[in-house]
Request: fold
Amino acid sequence: MARTNFDQLLQAGCHFGHLKRKWNPAMAPYIYTERNGIHIIDLHKTVAKIDEAADALKQIAKSGKKVLFVATKKQTKEIIAEKAQSVGMPYVIERWPGGMLTNFPTIRKAVKKMANIDKLMQDGTYSNLSKRELLQVTRQRAKLEKNLGSIADLTRLPSALFVVDVLKEQIAVREANRLGIPVFGIVDTNSDPKNIDFIIPANDDAKDSVEVILSACCAAINEGIEERKVEKADEKAADAQAEAEAEEGKAKRAARKPRKAAAEEAPVAEEAAPAAE
Reply:
């Protein structure tokens, strides 16, 4: 697996933290120095933490499980959507729906409602509605699509959460903690890393910073998905071979039966011959 490049992180501005007066003391182990009133993050630690997170994400993807990406910040929305879609993972870039994890069945009902509206529109059920009623249904569908469209394929709770700005997405983090779902988070110097299982200390405001970190993590997820495909193909080939060998053995046993029967009949025929004389 390709390792994270220190120079790439430096170029993307991952080392820029928040103003010194806004810092969270719990982030002290990840701060290298302070310059012009701004904390500078130790990128050597960031590199190590990205690699650690990437390894864990790869294993999750390899086992066929889902990682839910969360970032409702204006400047990171597009990046999250693009990267999550590239690896076929669900994501939330609009407002976090409260209880999305802790009250997951209700969220699933809303997603099913969206699918039902589509179905009824296609089979002509809504063709008899007035213009006003149709407009209401269309607006309801658009609202559901905006908030839940990106998690339509999430049929069960995710196996992990990847959060950009753990301070802003603290409700999501709290829900994941409550359910024991591991949290991967890009944590800036103003945030508390206490409830984050895989901390990636870095600038969570700059688009370039978030993009370089997500690229590394999504590349690892993609590797896990590809390895899973190869393993599945090998299993399929092994099963097919075992089946072929079983069929071959069956055919051999079936061919042996007539020969065995003929061998048993031969002495009977020899005994009958003298009696005929």
Remarks:
- The radius of gyration is 30 Å.
- The longest strand covers residues 31-35.
- The mean pLDDT is 87.
- The chain is about 55% helix and 10% strand.
